[in-house]
Amino acid sequence: MPAKRLFQLFVLAVSAMAARGEQNIEWAETVHDFGAIDENDGPVTCDLRFVNRGAEPVAVVAARASCGCTTPKYLTAPVAPGDTGVVEVTFDPTGRPGRFDKKVRVETSDGSGDPLRSSLRIKGVVVGASNTVRSRYPVDAGAVKLRASTAAFGEVLKTRDKACYMECYNSSRDTVTPYWDNLPPYITARSLGSKVAPGEQKTFTLYFSGPKAPLYGIVTDSLAFYADKGATPVTVDAVAIVKEDFSRLTPGARANSPEIKIDPEIVDFGKLDASGPSVSRTFEIVNRGHDPLLVRRVYTADRGVSVSIDKEKVKRNKRAVVTVTVDPSQLPSELLNARISVITNDPLRPTVVVRAAGER
After folding, report:
1. Max Cα–Cα distance, the chain, nearest Å
2. How wide is the angle at C-alpha 324 spanned by C-alphas 321 and 325, nearest 5°?
3. CA 34, chain centre distance (Å)
4. Per DSSP, what are the bridge partners of residue 179?
5. What is the pLDDT of residues 262-277, one digit of tens each?
6. pLDDT tops 70 at residue 37
7. Which end of the chain has a smaller Cβ tally under 10 Å, C or N?
């Protein structure tokens, strides 16, 4: 292609870019803060205005919100140079307590090329209606409502820590500073900011330390949550299942690992006298593996049943004796069907359940 022709194409391209650059709009504000709004008052609306600073009329050709709760409206009539255009944005707070931050993408065009895209935002905080707050945060802690009354950590390896997240909502008209108390040594609390403004949500992080846990198996405790200084505390139950960590066992260690055998796995108490004395039976824990079997815990949650063990370290081909005692007067029903959990360092069967059966 001749050099003269290339120069002409270059001039045309520059002219087209210059013409495209003539579309120049200036927004009075690109972020509108509604502040605190009441859900009961219904939708709120703001006008986001722009001035056409270009040489040609421009028109709003599209406006899209990032959420169905936000609705933009606009006129399609061209806005002459120097005049003002408006995009009306409505936010519906129904069922949306807490802080919100929504985007609205607006496209304008002067007809000379691709639309010009502008990004706008609306934000604020919704003070929720009582019914909405109650459905999402059913636990009443005074000024602050909690989503749950239990901190459920799930399974926690004995060598590691695990986090649990507790969500809360400030339903009052005042800023509060919630905090935790009565924490056991193996649970710590951390919040994502100390203060909670009216209508705001907050997430607290609780950490369960496996190495500091006092027991294997199910571990429960009670924590105290305060909505603010001087408030009446609400009890939050913490629950975790602490398990042995076998992830670092080498193939050689697994080959030499202990192997648990229970005899018998059902302890039969037969017929029990409801008004009679407590009755005891036994079962044995035998180590059929090579390395010592470490009995981490033997326990039951069934009422009227207690257990004890004579040793917690069982060498190869040796045995430990577990005594199961039943108080017939404390049984919750006529049938005895208790579960006794035996937790050991056997990687293949770390938890074995023994049943205690009978009737009164």
Report:
1. 115
2. 140
3. 28
4. 226
5. 999 999 999 999 889 9
6. yes
7. N
